[in-house]
Amino acid sequence: MAVLSKIREKTVFLIVIIALALFSFVLMDLFSNGGFSSDKSQNVIATINGEDVSREQFAMQVENYQRNSRGNITTTQAVNQVWDATLRNTLMKEQIDALGIEVGNDQLNNAIKQQFAGNPNFTNEAGIFDINKMREYVANLKASSPQAYQQWVMLEDNIAEQVKVETYLSLVKAGIDATLAEGKSAYQLANNTVNFKYVTLPYSQVADVEVTKEDIKAYINKHKEEFKSEAATDIQYVYFEEKASLEDENAIKAEIKKLLEKRVVYNQVSKMNDTLQGFANVADNEAFLAEFSDTQPSVRYFFKKDLPAEQADQIFALEAGQTYGPYKANGFYNVAKVVRTKQVADSVKANGMLISYKGTGAAEVNRTKEEAKNLADSLLTEIKTNSAKIATLATTLSDDPTTKNGNGELGWLQYAQVNQSSPVIEFLFDNAQGKVGVVETPAGFYVLEIAEAKNIQRAVEVTMLQKKIEPSEETSNALFTETTKFEIAAKQGNYNEEVKKASYEAKPVKGIKNMQENIPGLGSQRALVQWTFEEKTKAGDIKRFDLPTGYVVAQVTAKYPKGLMQVEEASAKVTPIIQREKKAEILKNKITAGTLAEIAKNQNVSVQTANAVNMKNPMIAGAGNEPEVVGAAFALAEGSLSKPIAGKTGVFVVETTAKKEAPALPSYKQMAAQESQARMMQVNRELYEALKAKAEISDNRANFY
Fold it and tell me: Which pTM was predicted?
């Protein structure tokens, strides 16, 4: 009772404590989900210029995209494809709505006409698209199938949106036509030429100079547009591959060897020992392999050339019932067994026709199976009398379009490339040249003739006992222990020192992006990428990841926020540029003479000549593409000497010897049209990139995928 009394006395205090505890959980949830807008953060995949992209709608599109791809792409790939389409559509719609672009009935009908021009539902007796037939079709849909009608409405909406996009692009293209003056300029750039002499001091003359972090930072700040960057991370990782040890391989090899010979096993039912035949002597290969093989390879005939090259001689030399192995190949220990041998042509030329019956799926066939069999048998009798009749009969009666339209010819069939379990193939390759017969197939009855058989030779029917080479439980446990020890040691000490101490290899990966999926050397590792971008993950953090083939212990070595590239991130690109600039200054200071001959003599280089060079293709023989050097040559008066010019490959000094202007054209319409065409080919891509660069985009995909 005393305890209850105490509790009653402290009731208010307890209520306050409980309330504070609950409130703290609420605050934690709010902060972890982005504050009081958590509902929005959980339901918005992205925001594009203030317009939210619904997570639910986006997820449905991703699911549909994956379904339509039939499993050929990963979720991350589908997400990125749907995102690109969503972003493009949103930006385009924004522009279209701002301009008030609408689609009239005539425009929509014309677009539908183009898309369904050959659809029999919408064509008249003359095979021409009839708008009235389309309207009748839509009216019937509306009356008979509301769901199908809604799908049609959605289709019309999609076509209308596409027409709007095309209208918008046409408006943009109309504003970028090249003028006659621009056509003239393009003509002159391609046809005005200059001749000049030059000397060049290649950058290779100067040893690499030091480039500091301050140099790189200054260059980035001076060229900000070139170095905008998404958020990125750098990592290094050690991969621990889970693979069979030598002891494991020997044990698997010993196991498969035991399966070759007779063995005695205790029968729990009869309480007696049973003697079981080994693979070498067993009669029912299929049942044996179903019980003991790790795979169920198809049984088929092989020519020697079609067997694995390393084992072809040994396997092909076997007689029926003999085995070869075990041998190691493709991650398995294998034992090959020849089931039987036969002489077979490597290719046959066949003729034939198909007689189908109702239920086989052949169009407009109403005969019964019995009627089809009787017809096939009667055709066989005619062909036996005169095989030349097969062409006429197939053209008239065959239900197989290939033989019906090809005068009964099936053409040449290669034994190694066909399905040997097919009844048609079995007939063609199991019989001699000239043989005719009727073969029943799921499609109907084939009347067949073996017109010609080539290169008859020995073939062996081979089946295979296989045991996968994989690590034992002991090996897997040892690898897990090794990985865990390294992980703990790296977290407690220094990652790189532990790598060196254990003689491992740490592989670096630079510039990982937020929606990236693949890691070089590891393949798809979305979970690893997501971890590196988590707010709580800092540079230096270490984590182990389980892979289907082993383990990875990864360390985040750097994290870069969205904005300008960091020095480390831009170093690979910027360092060569700054080195070239510094080398150019060194080389310029070495040039003091006043003529090309003197410069050449002082610098131990030669004077070279460039003739008929134009600005459109500023290639200098012996020096490559040097637009700044060629531009300087055009700017000089004839006989004038330039100041030192920093080119792509070295420092140049040029002396212009002659300039030739192209003859004026009566009209520059053609050149202007060519320029316009070149610009229009780039509109779709460059317009989208421009809209994207200007847009305010909040991309939260990585929070969900």
Answer: 0.66
